[in-house]
Amino acid sequence: QVQLVESGGGLVQAGDSLRLSCAASGRTFSTDVMGWFRQAPGKEREFVAALTWLGSGPYYADSVKGRFTISRDTAKNTVYLQMNSLKPEDTAVYYCAAKRSLRAYSDHGLYDYWGQGTQVTVSS
Question: Contact at 8 Å (CB) between 72 and 51?
Fold first, then answer.
């Protein structure tokens, strides 16, 4: 099993920045791909960004390219999502997820492990 714990969400104004963290523990050697997804009320869960512990990526959704940066600290088993120039439409619960294969990294249905989510609210 792999445990994922997100932190760093909050309430900010449009144009502000936030950094989310995802700490992984357990059998982390069984997974290589780390992804961030988000889900707004009444909407489907959508891909935000992904990378691998071994150095592939990063990969981004078009809606966040140029504003969000995903990174990793292998010594800490932690993945980060730096979010700049936040917009009200970025408001959602953000989830960290992990899986073994890089194939279809943007498909949330293929991820094996999920964190509990952290709320990000951007006011206009």
Answer: yes
Question: Which amino acid, residue 34?
Answer: M
d(CA 52, CA 105): 10
pLDDT of the residue at 27? 81
Q: What is the pLDDT of residue 29?
A: 76
3-state secondary structure of 120: strand
Q: Is the pLDDT of residue 49 over 90?
A: yes
**Beta carbons within 8 Å of 5's beta carbon, 6+ residues apart:** 22, 23, 25, 115, 116
* pLDDT grade for 36, boundaries at 50, 70 and 90: very high
d(CA 80, CA 74) in angstroms, rounded, equals 11
Supply the mean pLDDT for the chain: 95
For residue 29, the 8-state DSSP code is: G
- Which amino acid is it at 28? T
Partners of 97 in beta bridges: 35, 114
